[in-house]
Every structure is written in structure tokens, then in C-alpha cells.
Amino acid sequence: MKITRILITAAMLAAAAPVGAATAPLAWQNKALSADARANLLVNAMTVDEKLVLVTSYYGTQVDRNQYRHPDARRQSAGFVPGVPRLHFTPQWQTDAGSGVATQGVAVADLQRTALPAGILTAATWNPDLAVKGGAMIGAEARASGFNTMLAGGVNLLREPGNGRNFEYGGEDPLLAGTMVGAIVRGIQSNHIITTVKHFAFNDQERRRTTVNILVDEPSARMSDLLAFQIAIEQGNPGAIMCSYNLVNGEWACQNPWLLNTVLKGDWGYQGFVMSDWGAMHDTVKDALGGLDQEAGVQEPKDYVYRDKLKAAIADGRVPMSVLDDKVRRIARALIASGAADNPPTADQPIDFAAHEAISQADAEEGIVLLKNEGQILPLAASAQRIAIIGGHADVGVLTGGGSAQVYPRGGSAVQGEGPKTWPGPIVYAPSSPLKALQAERPAAKIAWADGSNVSAAETAARDADVAIVFVTQWTAESLDFPLTLPDNQDALVDAVARANPNTIVVLQTGGPVLMPWIDRVKGALEAWYPGSKGGEAIARILTGKVNPSGHLPATFGRAAADWPRAEIDGLNRGEKEVFDVRFTEGAAVGYKWFDKNGTRPLFPFGHGLSYTSFTQGGLKAGVKGGTISASFSVRNDGQAAGKSVAQIYVAPVNGGWEAPKRLGGFAKLALAPGQIKQASVMVDPRLLGMWDSAKPGWTVAAGQYRVTLATSAVDPGTSVIVTLPASHWPAGHGVAQ
User: Fold this and answer.
1) Alpha-carbon distance 715 to 699, whole Å?
2) Sequence-ordered alpha helix ranges (H) in 599-726
3) Where are the beta strands (DSSP E) in 130-211?
4) With 70 as the cut, is the pLDDT of residue 715 above it?
5) How far apart are CA 102 and CA 552, in angstroms?
6) Residue among 275, 230, 220, 228 at smallest CA distance from 253
7) Which of 104-118, 438-452, 567-581 has the highest mean pLDDT?
8) Are residues 260 and 291 in contact, defined by beta-carbon separation less than 8 angstroms?
């Protein structure tokens, strides 16, 4: 009964007085002061019990079996943190996730929202400015829905191609992933709300994610996943970091003092707060001392680890009061600095869905990747008057990813009854039909439809058409991992259609890399990922040439599962509570670096993406500036269509010595009219030129010659110049050379 009374008291406190009541301003509300000064004043004015309120987030969604749900949580939300009414300090209303305001399961009409394309598609745009716009859009919908905290910002590197959450993340390279996710975070937080960067760290598989112990040495960690997080934090300045379920080198991530105290808050000087993933807490004292600031996802009173348990640990000296004060100060500072504390949101505000869906469509159009275009089968020729559309529910919608990132789109799901009956299902299709959109683009064309369930019917439709377009899908979701083969015999379907019609195009909707045993037998292939609320329109506009594709792969597509360090994700046959090790033998050689190191030829390389025009890159010059490499170059559009080029700079020491032959050092996306030439330049982050030195600690750049290559993908030899760098050392945090 004691626990229940504490929780009821928190609810009563939250409801005792409205936030922002018309009373004289308190000292901490002085907007002329810095966020740090205001947070200090607020902490000093709080009682211990009020401080304890801010460090626990209660589950927001009503879950099965009528489990605990905080009465003041917003509907279908991720969580709720009571505020401090006496001091007019805001509660936190928390919502999932990276593709928009998410719901758990089916959402009623007034909770349906705009689905931004999956994070991996946004990464495939290689366009940070567009990512900011997408983040601003979903952040605006979060605020209009009554939320001031969004649990977006997934940046875990794509080490395991079958990871069920790859669709939420930014790909395999730390520079690209960190840059793109940081841009999304900036956009979200432009709405006077905070968001997270997650899942810190090495949450690279979903199967048995709560018991997998990741073994990785410090240099490899610093030069791969942690560097992606560091860049995203620097560029996005997120209010919160969400720690992950897994263990890292023997300690759970949410009580891992090396990750949270040494690296995040120490070396990087992070000023925000650390919240747990939902239910990822294990031990009151270890969590408190290990760097966890806010536990999240309390579903029942028995589940929490802070509140009176933390109060008792402070009372008997196991946890200093200063530790609690630091946690509360970080939470308060984040909400103050973002404007969330001064501008509490109100639920059920109007949303301009048409404008937001246009942003979602623009994102999809830049992130869809043209993988193959043999004989310029695309864009569809005017002579292609008989078109067969086959499979993938393309007659009604486009696929979305499942789990906590699931956005239930406006208009509901176009397909009912597929996938798991409970979370992380069901499988949801946004009601944006590629077939209908293509018909709208080509009203004179005769379009035949076959759902793909009957191979003979699909062959007949293909045989009678000028061109056949097969839509293949692989649904992925949180808490599950997936094989790299397409489900439901879709490979055989593609083979059959390709035999019936030599002009076959495949449109893939997947959450990451998949195997394509049929690729040599089709003329065209598009990777459309999970393209969001207007994905059908985006796909149709690319197929017809209304939009010139400009997406480039943020992840390598291999030819076989054995091309990656682990052909299969471990954990399938492990006991539910059995802690087991997964050693990252590849170290920092993630993705294209692993393929490059081992001389493995990918099916489609990192950075690959075709266009309906052609570009020439040249004029590469590179030199040393500020202790690092500065490179400039030009790009010319040689074709007859306007298009966007993604120029990529790769760097490597001439004499080797890195974890892999080369690293991505910079990139630039340029929009070019036919015949137009543009100049661009990039400055290589010195951390991308160094090796982590644990003894100093920091980044040591060896003196010597470095090759700078201007290329169109990780396998393109491109053009290169050599520069000579002096030796330098850079601190653990981002800063100037020492």
C-alpha cells in the first residue's frame, strides 16, 4: 500500500494547480537569466519529494490486462512525468518516435498523424537541410498533440543488417548518421520541445536485446557507434539521451558509468539528461551512480527503481544528495533551454495535414534510391501504355515500420489483419497507393493489377504488359530481428514476372538491406524504404520522371548474409533471461569499411544512387587548414534533366594503419540544372583522420601523407590527390587541436 500511496500523491501534486497559473513570477522564471542559472534556482527551491517526482516517467499508454497508466498522461502516449505545480514547473508529456507522433497499435481518427518516411530513408537523402524540415514537421505535430518531449533521434549504426530497428536509424557511417540525425533533432526541437538521441549505446540487435552483452574495445567503440552519437549530439543539442537495454562490456547501458559518466557527461560535456529506455532499469543505486537521470516506462507500481527507493538510498548514504540534485538540474535545464518550460503545450491543436504531408512526400522523393536502370528502363517511356503492377499491396498503400516508432497515418491503415495481433504489430500500410498515383500521372495508360498471391496470374499480367513493376516488401519492427531474404516467396514471384516480361522493374519497401538473387534478371530497381504518408505519390513521380531520383544508400547491400561479420544475429535459441556475449570482432570496420577491408564486392555499395541525368565531378583540390583537411571540387550536370548529385569525399592514410582502407570524410548534395556547374567544399572533421588513443585520451592524427578521393560511392575509385598532414592530437570532446 505504501507504493500506491506515493504514486497517488504524485498524481495529486500534478493536478493541484495549473502550470503557469496567474501568480507573481518565481525567481527561476526570470527569462533574463541563463538556463543554467534558472535551473539552479529551481533545484534550490524544491523539496526532496518534489525532486523525486521529476526522475520517474510513468507509462502513458493503456496496456494489456489493465496495467497501471498515469491518469494525467496524454492518450496513446509513451510516458508522463508529473511537474511541480507549487513552482509552476511543467510536467513532461512524452511521445514516440522518429517518424512522427506514434501510437501503440491501432489509433482512432483524431490520433492519426503524418508519417515522415523512416529514418533510414531520410539518411538516404544525404540532405541535412531537408532532415531539419522533416524534424520540424513531426515536432510541430507533437506539440499540437500536447507533447513537449519526443523520443526520436535513433543513431545506432547498422552493424547487423537484420536488426529490426534499422529503419529508425541513420545507416552505417558515423559521419552520415550523426549529421542526418542531428539535423532531425534540430528540427524537432525548434518547436519548444525536447527530443532524445538514442539508443545509447550499441543497441544493434533486437532479439534478446535486454540480455545481450556487447563486447567492444574502447578505440573501436569511440571510432564507430560512439562517434555517430557524438556528432549527432554536437549538431542536434538534444535535451535528452536515451540509454539502451543491452549490456556493454558487462554492465547494463543504463547503469554503465563508463558510457554515461565518463564518455557522455565527462568527455563530451553533455549538459542534458539521460532517460532510460522503457523498463531498462535494474538497480536503484547502480542506476543513480551510473549516470541515469530519469527512469522511464513504469507500468505498475512495483516496477519503479527511483522515488522512495532512491530517497531511502540517499537517507542511508548509498547515494549522495548531490547526485539527485544533478539529475533534477539536468532535467530542468533541458526543459528551460528548449523553451518547453515556458511554453507548455496544449493537446488537440489544429494540424495542417496537407502541408505536413507535402514535407513527408518531399523527403520520400529525395530518399528513394534508384539502384539499377539497365537500358534506361526508367523513367517510364511514353510508349509504355500497358503497365502491370504486381504485389506489395501497391493498389492501396505503402508499408511502414512497426513497434514504438509506428505512426498510424491519417486515413488509417490501408491493409487490415496482417502481422502480429499485439505489439509490435499490426502491420500498417499508409493509404497512399502507388498504383492510383501512377494512374493519375499516366491517365492514358492501361494499368493491370495482380496482388502477387497467384504467380500464374502475375505472369499473365506481366506478359500482356509493356512493362511490369513488382512491389516487394519486408516489414521490420522493434523487438524483432529479420532474415535478409524477402518473406512470402517474393523472390520466386520476381523471377516468374521477369521470365514473363523482360522489362521488369522492382520497387522494394524494406527497413534495410535485403538479398536480391533476381537482380541480374530485372532491368530496374528502386529502394523505396518505408516512404511515409505520401509514399505512393513519391514512388509514382519517380517512376514517371516527374522527379529525378537523388537518394544514395546509407548502408551497403551485400550479395550474401555471409558478407557481413555475423551471418545471423545471435540470441534466437537463448533463454529469456540468459546474459550472453556478442563480440564485435569487426571493431570500427562497420558496413562499407568491413567490405573494403575484406575485399568483398557488394551488390550495391554505400553511397550508391543513380539519376536520370549524368554528372561529372572534377577540379579536386585539397590542403591543410586548421590542422585538418579542406577539400574543394566542382560538379557539372552533363545531361538533359535537372538533378541532384551527392559528391562524397573519402580519406585514407597512404601507408594504411586504420581499421579499414578508407573513411567517409565529407559530402555535399548539389541541385544542378542541365549544363550547370557548381563549386563545393568540405572540411574533414579531424576525428575522421585520427585513431583513438585511450592513454592520452583523445584522437591522434599521425603525420604523413593522406589520400583524398572525390567519388560517387564507397567503391568508386574517383579522383584523388595527396596531402601531407602534421602530427596532431585532438581532445576527447570536440574542440581545437592541442
Assistant:
1) 27
2) none
3) 149-150, 194-200
4) yes
5) 27
6) 275
7) 438-452
8) yes
Q: Is residue 148 pLDDT above 80, yes or no? A: yes
SS3 content of the chain, % helix, strand, coil (to 5): 30, 20, 45
Maximum distance among all Cα pairs of the chain, rounded to whole angstroms: 81
On the question of a cis peptide bond just before residue 71, with omega within 30 degrees of 0, the verdict is no
For the stretch 725-734, pLDDT in tens is 999 999 998 6
> DSSP code of 305?
S
Q: What angle do CA 681, 663, 552 make, to 5 degrees?
A: 70
- Give me the phi and psi of 497, to 5 degrees please: -65, -40
Amino acid sitting at position 435: L
| Cell numbers for 545 | 520522371
At 652, which helix (H) or strand (E)? strand 643-653
Other C-beta atoms within 10 Å of 412: how many?
18
Cα 226 to chain centroid distance, Å, stands at 15
Q: Which amino acid is at 511?
A: G
CA distance 401 to 387: 28
Cell digits for 663? 573513411
Place of cell 501497391: 394
Among 686, 593, 653, residue whose Cα is nearest residue 220: 593
* DSSP bridge pairs for 79: 59, 94
* Residue indicated by cell numbers 524540415: 133
Torsion over CA: 614, 648, 605, 462 (sign): negative
Rg (CA), the chain: 26
Crossing angle, helix 225-236 and helix 174-189, to 10 degrees?
Answer: 30
pLDDT tens by residue, 358-395: 999 999 999 999 999 999 999 999 999 999 999 999 99
Q: What gap in Å lies between CA 553 and CA 551, rounded to an integer?
A: 7
Please, what is the end-to-end C-alpha distance for the chain in angstroms?
58
Cell of 437: 498515383
Q: What is the DSSP string of 455-520?
A: HHHHHHHHHTSSEEEEEEE---BTT-B--SSPSTTHHHHHHHHHHH-SSEEEEEE-SS----TTGG
59 in helix, strand or coil? strand
Residue pair 164/209 in contact (Cβ under 8 Å)? The answer is: no
* Residue 323: CB atoms within 10 Å: 16
Mean pLDDT of 104-111: 88
Smallest CA-to-CA distance from 569 within 485, 482, 486, 474 is with: 482
Q: Which residue is associated with the grid cell 549530439?
A: 233
**Residue type, position 660, single letter:** A
User: Which comes out higher in pLDDT, residue 424 or 61?
Assistant: 424
- The Cβ of residue 678 has, within 10 Å, a number of other Cβ atoms equal to 16
Q: Which three cell numbers stand for residue 18?
A: 495549473
Q: Are 120 and 511 in contact (CB under 8 A)?
A: yes
Placement of cell 522518429 in the chain: 98
pLDDT of residue 62: 58
SS (H, E, C) 437-473: HHHHHCCCCEEEEECCCCHHHHHHHHHCCCEEEEEEE
User: What integer is the mean pLDDT of 275-280?
Assistant: 95
* DSSP state string for 345-386: --SS----HHHHHHHHHHHHHHH-EEEEEGGG--SPPTT--E
Residue (of 450, 604, 448, 588) closest to 515 by Cα position: 604
**Which residue from 188, 195, 13, 189 is spatially nearest to 89, judged by alpha carbons?**
13
pTM of the predicted model as reported, rounded to 2 decimal places = 0.95
17-50, pLDDT tens digit by residue? 444 445 678 999 999 999 999 999 999 999 999 9
Main-chain dihedrals φ then ψ at residue 507, nearest 5 degrees: -110, 115
Q: Rounded to 5 degrees, what are φ and ψ at 384?
A: -80, 85
Strand ranges across the sheet with 240-243: 273-275, 240-243, 194-200, 149-150, 92-95, 79-81, 56-59, 295-298
